[in-house]
Amino acid sequence: MARRGGPPEVNAGSMADIAFLLLIFFLVTTTIETDAGLDRMLPPIEPPEDNVIIKQKNIFTVNINKSGQLLVEEELTNLKDLRKKAIAFLDNGGDGTCNYCKGKKDDTSSDNPTKAIISLKNDRETKYGTYITVQNELVGAYNELRNREAQRLYGRDFTDMEAEYLNPETPSSIRDDLKDKVQRIQDLFPQKLSEAETATSN
After folding, report:
1. Regions of the chain short of the pLDDT cut 70
2. Could you read off the pLDDT of 100-143 as tens digits, one per residue?
3. CA 182 to the chain's CA centroid
4. If exposure means fewest CB atoms within 10 Å of the residue's CB, which of 13, 66, 102, 145 is most exposed?
């Protein structure tokens, strides 16, 4: 009589190898999303200058409370009006030394764009979205003025020139030409956006 065999056995000896290969595959092919932060380039650390006094009129104060309300120059302000007020401050040219400024030349406001500082302060409970929106409006004020001067001097927007200059795929010959132009426009309206306490005088 023939001997009846048991159920066929499954060879599981290589299962560990297969699992390891699958693990490697998924690790290599999976992309991990990362949170995007603020696109800010911090200035280099420089030794503090002694006896630097900044006139109060050269500081444009923006405060955000925990409810998201804006207090601009001690006045409750809507977000939609923030950029306009910032532009008026930066473009004021109060001391008459700015020959490209088109502001009111109010002697109680900023003397010159190179001296104008925007001071942003917020409550610890301020919503992140509100903070980012306010930052965007203030940076937008700088870009609007820079675009105006870039159009006057070079016939194109500063934001386009800067994007092309920062693009690593831009040929070096074009980047070399853009470097001086971008720097010149930045010097006309230097972005001085501070979130620190500033020593002031009247």
Report:
1. 1-13, 33-52, 196-202
2. 999 999 999 999 999 999 999 988 888 888 889 999 999 999 99
3. 16
4. 13
Beta strands 200-201 and 70-72: pairing type? unpaired
pLDDT score, position 122? 86
What would the two tokens of residue 1 be? 């009589």
Query: Distance from CA of residue 81 to its chain's centroid?
Result: 20
- Rounded Cα–Cα distance for residues 182 and 79 (Å): 29
Query: Is the distance from CB of 120 to CB of 135 less than 8 angstroms?
Result: yes
Rg of the chain's alpha carbons, rounded to an integer? Answer: 28
Q: Amino acid identity of 101?
A: C
C-alpha 79/C-alpha 102 separation (Å) is: 23
Which tokens go with 151? 């159009």
Cα distances from 75 to residues 45, 59, 161, in angstroms, run 34, 14, 36
Output the pTM of the full model. 0.73
Q: Domains of the chain: which residue ranges?
A: 54-201
Contact by Cβ (8 Å): 138, 62:
yes
Whole-number average pLDDT of the chain: 84
Any bridge partners for residue 15, and if so which? none
Element (H, E) at 194: strand 193-194
Under DSSP, the state recorded for 94 is T
Q: In terms of DSSP bridges, do strands 59-64 and 117-122 run parallel, antiparallel, or are they unpaired? A: parallel
Nearest-10 crossing angle of helices 172-188, 158-166? 140
